[in-house]
Amino acid sequence: MSSSKLRILVPVKRVIDYAVKPRVKANKTGVETSGVKHSMNPFDELSVEEAVSLRDKRKLPVEDIVAVSAGPAKAVETLRTAMAMGADRSIHVEVAEDKPLEPLGVAKMLKAIAEQEKSNLIFLGKQAIDDDSGQTGQMLAGLLNWPQATQASEVTISGEDVTVEREVDGGTETLKAKLPMIITTDLRLNEPRYASLPNIMKAKKKKVDKKTLQDLGIDSEPRLKTVKVEEPPARQGGGKVEDVDGMISKLKELGAL
Amino acid sequence: MFSLARPTALRGMRTQFLPSSIAARSPLQSAALARLASTLAILEQREGALNTSSLGAVTAGKKIGGSVHGFIAGKNVKGVAEEAAKVDGLEKVIMVENEAYQRGLAENWAPLLVENIKKGGYTHVIVGHSAFGKNLLPRVAALLDVQQISDVMSVESEDTFVRPIYAGNAILTVQSSDSLKLLTVRQTSFPPAAVEGGSASIEEGTDPKAEQPTSWVSENLTKSDRPELATAAKVVSGGRGLKSKEEFDRLMPPLADALGAAIGASRAAVDSGFADNSLQVGQTGKNVAPQLYLCAGISGAIQHLAGMKDSKVIACINKDADAPIFQVADVGLVGDLFEKVPELTEKLKAQ
Fold first, then answer.
1. End of a domain among B204, B221, B254?
2. Is B169 in the same domain as B295?
3. What is the average pLDDT across B57-74?
4. Taking 50 as the threshold, does the pLDDT of residue B14 lie above it?
5. Chain B residues with CB inside 8 Å of A238's CB?
6. Residues B151 and B72 grouped into a single domain
7. Residue that is last in its domain, among B158, B188, B204
8. Do B192 and B75 share a domain, yes or no?
9. B25 located within any domain
10. Which of residues 100-139 of A touch B (CB under 8 A)?
């Protein structure tokens, strides 16, 4: 049975909190991040919850849950959150704030870590809500040559067999594969838990390994150059109408009916 | 790696007859033309019919310039390939006939594309930012060691593209230094190429017959006679204000029918179980840009606005006059949706 012991890797990203409206910098080089509330990418919370629930709710043989994050020193706060939710330990790959990795770089880094950790199941969020690329999980699956199930809304594991229901255009589809496997999480997958105060305290004692991209042999040279970042064109809110008749006539006037 | 420009006679001709005005264009554009872009547009099919919304990839390919080839694979795709051959702007359709590709699974599609991209020496590979494209292209990108660009809204030049970040709250222009560009394109920004007027040749592609470690078990698609959400000309959308699935089902379908509209929903409505997840409009759901987006009981959170603010006309009904939705709506009605939506439905039907 040792082969079906789950060694789970959960990559998490620290992003601007989902409720904050991002502000584009005046010099058009990016979005203002300093002094702005950050938290764990919401899809990554789903990944952590799913990993932890495999052990505590579904009683599967989970040997280890390792959270990993690449970023500046503050990424450790995100890792502490993951550990307070139930991850056993963490790996922090130090990456300068002004030189963030692109999804391909993250995927290469995660491949190196997954191999070191002998992971056999990796949960990633389907996308990070800052960059909105939605690439890392699929890239990692390609690099590792593992099966992938993206946008998962239900995951069932039995021994080596993994069944995943995934969100597709127009509904869902169900796929089956064997471990090792990459799964990216979608919103309907679960309801992430809140970390309790005792668990937050316990998480402070859990281990965070520090690594650098050099340790992992990762080339962090970006392939994409930011030409500019701009505000989207503002819409003119067009005023209100008094009643339903007013709405219909305004819509006709605008050619929408 | 592989050579970028295919040394065909056609290309030779193109180079020869490049208009002299090229020199006056921006260096990027002239560099693009000098490099002779050639694009592979990946087309989707379902049950032997071409998915026309995937033809946005062809439209994007045309914007880049150079030749555009279509790619289609699956079971009995000859008919689909013939259909695709008539698509305006396609020079060639590459077809791979093999049941193994029928379900669009990334594990065998990725090596299939890698082989055909290498064989064709393409400079650009484009697929719609659909569930299929999103699942597949990053895997291909990793195998080719390329940093893909997702959800492209516009093509500035052969290496420079515009895409939304932060739920559309910022618009990023990026320049790729990869010799091969892989793009997923936003359907609402690249309307499908016309399905007539073209006369592409059909050619069989390479089939690496890679092992498929994943098996497709089943699917559960929402059946609907209504227009498809992502491409509908009109969308009616409901949010948390509908209060329950019963109310959602009572109020929204008649309004949609009165307008001939597709039905959408906010994440709050989906999370509360009022509507199916496939109807979700927003950053993490679908992007829509219909002629009319009419919503009720939606406050207008930034994640929702991300998915609909490119609609031509936005109308909303909400009882909270301060809801952010009113800041983007062209027509706003402050009122109780439980009164206003049925009234609107009746009056629209009477017209």
1. B204
2. no
3. 97
4. no
5. 329-332
6. yes
7. B204
8. yes
9. no
10. 102-104, 107, 126-127, 129-139
Residue B223 within any structural domain of the chain: no
Average pLDDT value for chain B: 90
User: Which of A184, A223, A236 to mutate against chain B (most B CBs within 10 Å)?
Assistant: A223
Q: Does residue B193 sit in the same domain as residue B259?
A: no
**Chain A CA closest to residue B212:** A147
Residues B119 and B263 in one domain: no
DSSP SS3 for A244: helix
pLDDT digits (tens, 9 = 90+) for A217-229: 998 899 999 999 9
Closest CA in chain B for residue A175: B216
d(CA B73, CA B205) in angstroms, rounded, equals 9
> Model's pTM, two decimal places?
0.90
Range of the domain at B178: 36-204
Which of the four pLDDT bands, split at 50, 70 and 90, describes residue A3?
low
Contact flag A132-B164 (C-beta cutoff 8 Å): yes
Count interface pairs A-B at CB distance under 8 A: 266
Alpha helices in chain B (DSSP H): 9-16, 27-35, 56-64, 78-85, 106-120, 131-144, 245-259, 267-271, 302-308, 325-328, 337-350
pLDDT, mean of residues B245-254: 97
Mean pLDDT of A125-138: 97
3-class DSSP state of A22: coil
Residues of A in contact with B142 (CB under 8 A): 104, 107, 138-143
pLDDT tens by residue, B154-207: 999 999 999 999 999 999 999 999 999 999 999 889 999 999 999 999 999 999
Instruction: Check residue B148 and give its pLDDT.
Output: 98
- B81 in the same domain as B144: yes
Question: How many structural domains comprise chain B?
Answer: 2
B227, part of any domain: no
Q: Compute φ and ψ for B335, nearest 5 degrees.
A: 175, 175
Q: Which residue has the tokens 């963490």?
A: A90
The answer to whether residue B191 is domain-embedded is: yes
Place of tokens 């995951």: A155
Both B145 and B265 in a single domain? no
Do B132 and B197 lie in one domain? The reply is yes
Least CA distance to A185: which residue of chain B? Answer: B284
The alpha carbon of residue B17 is apart from the nearest alpha carbon of chain A, in Å, by 32
Average of per-residue pLDDT values in chain A? 95
Of A35-39, B25-29, B211-215, B321-325, the poorest mean pLDDT is in B25-29
Are B214 and A244 a contacting pair at CB < 8 A? no
Domains of chain A: 6-254 (3.40.50.620)
Give pLDDT tens digits for A59-98. 999 999 999 999 999 999 999 999 999 999 999 999 998 8
Q: Which two tokens stand for residue A63?
A: 């040997």
Cα separation of A7 and A119, whole Å? 5
Judge contact between B2 and B30, C-beta under 8 A. no
Q: Tell me, rounded to whole angstroms, the distance of Cα B162 from its chain centroid.
A: 15
CA dihedral angle for residue B90, residue B102, residue B110, residue B176, rounded to 10 degrees: 40
- From chain A residues 55-74, the ones with a CB under 8 A of any chain B CB are none
Question: Per-residue pLDDT for B20 more than 50?
Answer: no
CATH number of the domain where residue B188 is located: 3.40.50.620
CATH code assigned at B256:
3.40.50.1220
Cβ atoms of A240 and B333 within 8 Å: the answer is: yes
Q: How far is B159 from chain A (nearest CA, A)?
A: 10
How do residues A197-221 score in pLDDT, each as one tens digit?
999 999 999 999 999 999 999 988 9
pLDDT at position A219 is 85
Binding residues of B for FAD, as ranges, are 240, 266-267, 280-284, 297-304, 318
